[in-house]
Specification:
Elements (H helix, E strand, L loop, with lengths): L4 H21 L5 H15 L6 E2 L1 H12 L17 H11 L9 E9 L5 H8 L3 H8 L5 E9 L2 E11 L22 E2 L6 E2 L6 E2 L2 H18 L2
Parallel strand pairs: 1-3
Antiparallel strand pairs: 2-4, 3-4, 3-5, 6-7
């Protein structure tokens, strides 16, 4: 019995397309991840330990930004979200299990009207003796970073949260993937492609999009006449 060429073509192409999607999902094109890399490079250059990049903590850092509601003038005025927000608001919005929350041992926050590259953001965040002390503290074991614009543009916020939790057990996320409803914004540790400079730091989640496209393409090919 003759075999239709199109379903056979789909069967041959599907593994390659899925492999491409999986590779995309591991992309490191994320400004929050780049900021964490700069933080760890700076720490190790000064004999401090490298910190684990925790996606749950990174998602919470993004929620921390959103608590400012785009009010750049609130940053640096000793105004910050109340501590109960971590348990009552930030963790649930990210799908982080409340029982796995660990102590926040330091935080860095900056805001400006124009988008800054990760290297520029690092210099803005760490600009005095106090922020250097936070950066190099030996109390930290893990870190989460985030960046977000406001309404698709400026002002842009950068946030870094440090914790003394155990990387394998703290800030655990339900289903192993933080909730996606918190976008726009980029946060570290989740292997998402994330567009920064020209899109208000809106996550692209390119890996997921390509996987869906691959599956749809295979279905169309399989059922085409």
């Amino acid at each position: 019995m003759a075999v239709s060429a199109r379903p056979l073509l789909a069967a041959l192409l599907l593994p390659a397309l899925l492999l491409s999607a999986a590779s995309a999902a591991d992309s490191k094109n994320n400004p929050a991840d780049e900021l964490v890399s700069l933080i760890n490079s700076n720490r190790t250059a000064r004999k401090a330990s490298s910190l684990s990049d925790n996606q749950g903590l990174g998602c919470i850092a993004l929620q921390y930004i959103k608590a400012y509601e785009g009010q750049c003038n609130q940053v640096g005025q000793n105004k910050k979200p109340i501590e109960s927000s971590f348990t009552d608001k930030f963790a649930p919005d990210c799908g982080v299990q409340a029982a796995t929350l660990s102590k926040i041992t330091g935080r860095l926050l900056a805001c400006q009207s124009d988008y800054a590259s990760p290297a520029e953001a690092f210099n803005i965040l760490v600009d005095d003796a106090k922020s250097l002390q936070v950066l190099h503290s030996k109390n930290h074991t893990e870190v989460g970073a985030a960046v977000s614009g406001t309404d698709g543009g400026g002002p842009y916020f950068w946030c870094v949260l440090f914790s003394d939790g155990k990387p394998s057990t703290s800030f655990k996320v339900d289903g192993e993937v933080p909730k996606t409803a918190i976008h726009p914004g980029c946060f570290s540790g989740n292997n998402d492609d994330c567009m920064g400079a020209k899109n208000g730091a809106v996550s692209a989640n390119v890996g997921t999009l390509r996987l869906v496209a691959a599956l749809l393409f295979a279905i169309v090919c399989a059922f085409a006449l």
